[in-house]
Amino acid sequence: MALRNHSTITEFILLGLSVDSHVQVLLFVLFLGIYLFTIMGNLSMLLVIREDPHLHTPMYFFLSHLSFMDFCLSTAIVPKLLENLLSQSKTISVGGCLAQVFFVFDIGGTEVCLLSAMAYDRYAAICHPLLYGRVMNNQLYMQLVWGSWSLGFLDALINIPLTMNLDFCEAKIIHHYSCELPSLFPLSCSDVSTSLTVLVCSTLLHGGGTFFLIFFSYVRIVSTILSISSTSGRSKAFSTCSSHLTALSFFYGSAFLRYLMPTSGSPLELIFSIQYGVVTPLVNPLIYSLKNKEVKNALRRTLGKCLQ
């Protein structure tokens, strides 16, 4: 049923990042290195959080799921990019393209929800430190995590079936290195107005809801930090949420701008896609390890155990 309307087109062509063969070799080496470091970094974070009892707290439970999502997001995008950099045909089947669209949409939507849950966690820790254990109890943070996964899946479930029912005729060139939902609409010979409306509305609703929670949390956090009399106290309070703010700025803006801006094949689209789909999964483990004493100490303890 999913592919019955795609009989005239069985595959798409991904133009990628460059048509120069020498540049493609350099890009292959670059993105292979990025992918390997991404996998190692996120798997290391998962291992450290799992093995170190000091990190069995709500914040690091959220972080473990963030690392798993970054691992999945990078794996959904980069291997096909690497294959096409070495391939002459640079094709992807319609089914494979729709599968990639689904996983990127699902994981990206889940990550946005999780980042907003992490903002609420920082709000509870900074604004209500004495009540933190009661506010962010085991039941609540489990609900926030599984709610994030459910909302991401629901968002993908709303958008992707509409795309699966589109007809793709003669045009089959995607001016991109991966399949993303906005890039498929110009290739369809069906009416895409409904699909486009649903995409914009769901993105605004998804983004607006999570942005409101993040904005509310950080307004209260900043207000609380400014009310602290000592400079060292303000600095310590701010340092507890600086890693989250950095991760948020890397992913949030670029992902929503990519899905809301008109598809034109411009370099800006590629930059936004690379930032949220390739760069963010790479830098998140670095952000949370280099700027976090607890994680650095846990890494030393875990390495010590492994070397014994």
Could you describe the 3D structure shown?
This protein is mainly α and 308 residues long. 75% of the residues lie in helices and 3% in strands. It is built from ten helices and three strands, in the order E-H-H-E-H-H-H-E-H-H-H-H-H. It has a three-stranded mixed beta sheet. Helix 3 (94-127) packs antiparallel against helix 8 (231-260). The termini are far apart.
List keywords for this structure.
membrane; mainly alpha; Olfact_rcpt; 3 strands; three-stranded mixed beta sheet; transmembrane helix; 308 residues; globular; 10 helices; 3% strand
SSE layout:
Blueprint: E1 11-14, H1 21-51, H2 58-86, E2 91-93, H3 94-127, H4 132-135, H5 138-164, E3 173-174, H6 181-184, H7 193-226, H8 231-260, H9 267-290, H10 293-307
Parallel strand pairs: 1-3
Antiparallel strand pairs: 1-2
The total beta strand count reads 3
Helix proportion of residues, in percent?
over 70%
| Shape category | globular
Oligomer designation: single chain
Gyration radius, in Å: 21 Å
Strand content: under 5%
The computed structural class is mainly alpha
Largest sheet: 3 strands, mixed
Quick structural gist:
The protein is mainly alpha-helical. It has helices spanning 21-51, 58-86, 94-127, 132-135, 138-164, 181-184, 193-226, 231-260, 267-290, 293-307; strands at 11-14, 91-93, 173-174.
